[in-house]
Amino acid sequence: MTDAIFTSATTWLLLAQAGVAPPVAAPVAPASTAGGMRLDLRTLILLGTVLGLLAAASIIGRVLRRSADTTLNPAMVKTFRSRVNAWWTMYAILIAGFLVDFAFRYVFRATIATVVLFGLVSFWALREYITMTPTRRGDHRTLFWTFFLFTPLQYVLVGIGSYCFELYTTMIPVYASLFIPARIAISGDPKRFLERVAKIQAGLLICVYALSHAPALLSLQLHYSNGQPWVIDAQGTSGSNAGLLFFFVLLVQLNDVFQYVWGQLLGKHVIAEQINSSKTWEGVIGGLMSSMILSMLLCWATPFSLWEAPCIALVVSLAGFAGTMTMSAVKRDRGVSDYGTLVQGHAGVLDRIDSICFAAPVFFHITRYFFSKL
Amino acid sequence: MKLTAAVLSLAAKLLSGATVRWFECQPDPCQRVYFANHTSHLDALILWASLPRQIREVTRPVAAKDYWNKDFLRRYMAKTFNALLIDRDEIKVHNSPIDLMIREMGSDFSLIVFPEGTRNTGEEMQEFKSGLYHLSRKRPDLELMPVYIDNLNRVLPRGEFLPVPLLSSITIGPPIWLEPKENKNDFLKRAREAVRRLKDI
User: Fold this and answer.
1) What is the ipTM of this complex?
2) Could you tell me if B17 lies within 8 Å of chain A, comparing CB atoms?
3) What's the pLDDT tens digit per position in B59-79?
4) Quick check: is A194 in a domain?
5) Fewer CB near the terminus (10 Å): N or C of chain A?
6) What would be the CATH architecture of the domain defined by B2-200?
7) Tally of domains in chain A
8) Can you give the pTM of this predicted structure?
9) In degrees rounded to 5, what are phi and psi of residue A265?
């Protein structure tokens, strides 16, 4: 397993030295390179390490399935394998976005591909959410605008970048939230009006607005918390926002895993039996601790210092936990176990990103206020 | 024509996010009549598009002539899906739609029919029209496949022209046949129940 990590890391190092390395900025003004996708050496090492780990996890999954004399529960092996496959998809989506943006970094100043891919994920998550939520005939036009106006518009504004910060942080909570009840009222069906409004507002807020804060990280001009530019080598190359976004997704996803593992190992006190029977206090606290240690191990890929990283990890993990609990509550209310499809029980996009949705805004705001030029 | 059909069925599948389940039965190109609940204009298109390609090529949706013959676009679409158009206004004894269907089916084609006759607006399915009974009286060899279409009425409800891309599902159940000596009402009730039953699976 360590071999795999090591070789992939070395491969990336070699690749980076052979010319994939990003253009070197002038040492005086590293911030001027902001805009467009940059992939620095550290980001590549991080991506390579995760690639190696995923490959190792896939191999372990295969071996576990093949070996008959295992003491492990076959259902657990199956969960593990489906999880690993979901991570592969997530990883592939992120990397695809990064690479396309990197290839066109001189053409577009913004990171269009990554933002578009996040937009598609939002669209799909909202689709799963609304499918699960009963709406009435009178909501049809409102839903149309929700899917085909507000969702794309939010990502267009995020794609334009910091220039539209005020707009993309207010468009959905203010204007869409006012539009939705008004449009439903005009359609003329008063039955359970407040309930229907709340359902659509909540879906748009969680699946679209909250998640869009993750790709919004790409347009920040990052620096250290003391105001010094985030420079990673002697030539004055500034660090990469893509690396920070990847760090965030990795942190939240692994926090879920840590919570699950600690819950399985030590879990005794279930937090809310009726909402989510697998979340225990032991699991959550163990997960928080593990995430904080992980963030310290990975802080070289971010502008966070050795003590700042675990503080951020603490907040992010708590938000991720809140997301999982909230979305579990919605599922229990609807009497389903997964968002997935209408009838079958396999997990959907929203099951995978619930924690990211809740953690993205808080991570974005911490980074924006303490680690970037406003 | 084939390309249009492929593009349209792909678009329809993306838009409706339909999952297809064959419950206690398998796709087979033998002669069948798929009968489904009718809630949206998209029903025939989505059901047709969700069949495997070899089966799609020998399956014809039965649709109303007064709707699908109205303008160029609809006529073109009906032609693309090889739809069998039935004149609802001029039903005559010597040229009944059942005879037309049997003639057009020949010995190769399968049909998609909506025995409720028109799209239902409420939650419950309407009573079935008698066409299905007469069809299987004349062709007792046909496999009658019940199909339940779920959630498509939310994708494109009656009277709307802009779709909302929710996820829908199509469940195809095991075939039924007309029993010997079974009367019309019993058979239609049984057929309706076969469709309704798939909702809860």
Assistant:
1) 0.84
2) yes
3) 999 988 888 888 888 888 888
4) yes
5) C
6) 3-Layer(aba) Sandwich (3.40)
7) 1
8) 0.86
9) -75, -50
